[in-house]
Amino acid sequence: MSSEQTDRVELLQGTLDLIVLRALETMGPQHAYALASRLEQVAQSRLTLNQGTLYPALVRLEQKGWIKGSWQRTERNREAKYYRITRAGIRGLRAETERWRRLAGLVDTLLLNEG
Amino acid sequence: MGQVRRFLLRLANLLQPGKADDELDRELSAHLLLLEDEFRRRGLSGEEARLAARRAFGRIEQTKDRHRDERSFRWMDELTRDLRYGARLLRRNPLFTITAAASLAVAIGAGTTVFTAANALLLRTAPGVADPGRLVDINRSVGDLGVEPIPYSMYLDIRARATLVEQVYSYELTLRPVRLTDIPGQAAADAVFANRVSPNYFAALGVPAAAGRVFGEHDASDLVVLNHRFWRRHFNEDASIIGGSLRLNDRLYTIAGVAAESFHGNTVLAPDLWMPADPARPLEFALVGARLTPGASRSQAAAEIAAIGQNLRLPGPDIAPDPTARRRPAPRLTLSRSSPVPAGIRILVGGFLGLLMAIVAVLLTIASANVAGVLLARATARRREIGIRLALGVGRARLVRQLLTETVLLFGLGGLAGLGLSRVMNAAILRLLPSFPMPADAALAQDGRVVAFALGVSLVAALAFGLTPALQASNVDVTSTLKTDEQGPSRAIRVRRAFVVAQIALSVLLAVVGGLLSRALLRTGSPALGFDPRGVEVVSIDLSIGGYTRTTGSTFARDLLGRIRQMPDVETAAIAYATPVGGVLGFQVAIPGETTPDGGPFFDTLGNVVTPGYLAAMRIGLAAGREFSDVDSATSPRVAILSETAVRRFWRGIAPDEAIGRQITLQPMLVEVGTRRPVTGVPLTVVGVARDLTGVNGRTPRPFVYVPLEQQYMSTLKILTRTTSAQRIAREIRSLVTTIDPRLPVLSAGTLDDEGSPVMTQLRVAAILAGSLGICGLLLAAMGIYGLTAYLVTRRTREIGVRIALGAEPGDLIRMVLGEGMRMALTGSALGLLLAAGASRLLTSLLFGVAPLDPLTFGSVIVLFGAIALAASYGPVRRALRINPVEALRYE
């Protein structure tokens, strides 16, 4: 139980946006449910993804104009709001990914040196 | 880019919160359906799948909340909700809302009006100039106050030496009346007012032409530029007159153009036209302004100007060498921001507006305290509601914020109404001002600064007076409030009582100040003033416009006076340089064998130049000797009449009649008409001693010297006519002047009461303001007393019931309830009288000899407030007497 707990990680502030954008870029338009299942699947359940954090992230990105939502039908004929990444979103993703890499590299270096 | 977009969308979300909520609900239920499908595929039944989906999703409400925070601004969201809630509460108590907002509106409106005046006169630069922030006034001051003109030589020095200011320009402070002829369809001469300015005036101020062009540095000096208003009034905006000629004082001028419509001169005086100063006849005494050189700051430029001032040749060549020069403070040059009121007068205007602002601030405090008292009462009534909300986990800070929002809303409402009200008051104030002998531009515009002031004051007052009730209201002991139905803590009552007492005290202060000023105003019409201004018509003329000289002018004045005295309804008439209330001359007087108390040779006195019969016409009493008569002609020995104070000051300890026959030497601060050389050393024989005038400078009479017009010619004159029963005869006098000389225009006409000195105008405005606001304060205080005593009676219903049951007489009850109201009234009045006693000492100079502790004023205010307190307690007393002990006790 406790080891399982430590395996799971909470997302760092701001990284969820990056992950959502990346997922939408590779998978094409998705609704929130599919997005959530997909992320948990990829992370092999090591990621605690609360719906309470996914929805705010989606509205944040949509307000920035990086993703765009529209109502469509699923293959089983349910209605759902599909989000797709916009051109501004792709540019933003590039920049944010670059920033994240630099930050992660820096943190790595610092941790290694201190260790 | 994305951030900006997001910010705007979050803002937009505040305006339509419902829409996004619906969208989210739809999205979330879609999400749940998809989850349900998934569980069904795994083999759960319909109902099981639905519940499982719910469980798997987690807390929906929390998700919604976080979504809301993310897409909007939480505090703004709460604010809009608080505003809506507050608005609903205010709507539910319309009587309270209207009285509170109305009382605040009166106070804020009055304050805004005073601020508008200060803004228009002191804070703003005159409208219509380019880049007003870089425009400065260069002032010369000798003492602390007053406008000291800058001689031409000094102006040239400043122009040559200053490096941190450029485009140094000059202008005459007063407007010159000139005679305008050649206007088609107008037979008689018409006076227009011209401002003589340096040729670079328009270039320096950056004022363009609305039509034609403005004159500049290298133009001929026979050009004029018209004020747009004058162009409209006299020429109906006819563009064909530009380039045409205009006959002013029998000289032909060419109309160069019309100044931009928004520009009416750089001071409060609005001339009809501007004339460039002739280089051969420059502006001898003028005021000076300039523009800061790019890159220079105002303080750097001020330092430079001060340094230039110290190196200038002093005194200027235009003033006779003065043996007392060493004793006088050296003239200084200062530099200040340009404003429509010249720097030397700014402090006077500012002081008066400050007095009005203080009066208004007192009323605002009263009105705010009144509202705060009612808010406290409501807070007590809402204790249960607030207790429940606290119990439900609403934070206290949040609750205070919500209560404050309500208060701010109420004050904001008052502020907006006040802003509207102040427009009306502006118009009224302009009507209260006396008719000015020159056209003045006193447009009181409500610009952004005025709006910001009104709303800022409302906000500050709301926070200052809303905080106590809000803190008090939110400070609720949850358990006890919910358990019992007790009527609120006595602490809240103490605070309310303090508010009511403060209101009474401040209303008493206003009422006393208003009363004292009104008494002083009544006195201005009584012998205490030293003359009688009632029923006197004042008509101004300037003989130099008609081309009169010293000899022809004197003859004309004598003829005119003779013919006016023969007119029907005229009781007496005289001609003088100034009326008793204003615009007097300054004389320096030397007395053989006497020195001033500090050892100087010259006594500073005020003076006037008058025709025979002036003292009689003004009803100024004669203490000894005689008035001027026809004997005192240009060729006879020169004579003077002194005031009693002058006699006392010149020769210590002699009776008025001992002064007759003594000699004084007059050194008028005057220049000869024509040669412009100072008049020096004229020996005069005292032939009469007149009673003191107290209306000239308010408080202590200053030494005053009268000299006859025949012996000291002046060209600007006032015809003073006292009619038999105070009829207006301005029109008759005007047509008489035109009959005698059609070229001579009448500059202005009005009654001596209207004419009023600035002091009297100030007094009138202050008295009306303090008086009317005092009455507002009184009504508010009455409401305060009523509200609190009525509340206390309700609160003590049961106790009163018990008392009645135990046999209390109606008298006991009356004493009990009345005592409550009267105690507040007494404490408040005592405090107010102390405040008023202090304030009235500060006002001594405006009181014209009314004692600062005038028993009549103080006494009647006490009686008035006692009566008001009694009247306000009447309702509550009746209610207490009607209490039925049986019902009161049953009501558990």
Descriptive account of the structure:
The complex is a heterodimer of chains A (about 120) and B (about 900). Chain A has one domain (about 1-110): Arc Repressor Mutant, subunit A. In chain A, about 65% of the residues lie in helices and about 15% in strands. Chain A has five helices and three strands. Chain A has helices spanning about 1-5, 15-25, 30-40, 50-65, 85-115, and strands at about 30, 65-75, 80-85. In chain A, strand 2 (about 65-75) and strand 3 form a beta hairpin. Chain A is globular, with a radius of gyration of 16 Å. By secondary structure, chain B is of the alpha+beta class. Chain B folds into four domains: about 1-70, no CATH class; about 130-345, no CATH class; about 350-525 and about 760-890, no CATH class; about 530-755, no CATH class. Helix content of chain B is about 50%, strand content about 15%. In chain B, the strands form four sheets. Chain B has a six-stranded mixed β-barrel. In chain B, helix 13 (about 395-430) packs antiparallel against helix 14. The model of chain B is unreliable at about 315-330 and about 670-675 (pLDDT under 50). The chains are: A alpha+beta (about 120), B alpha+beta (about 900). The interface between A and B is medium-sized, with 25 and 27 residues.
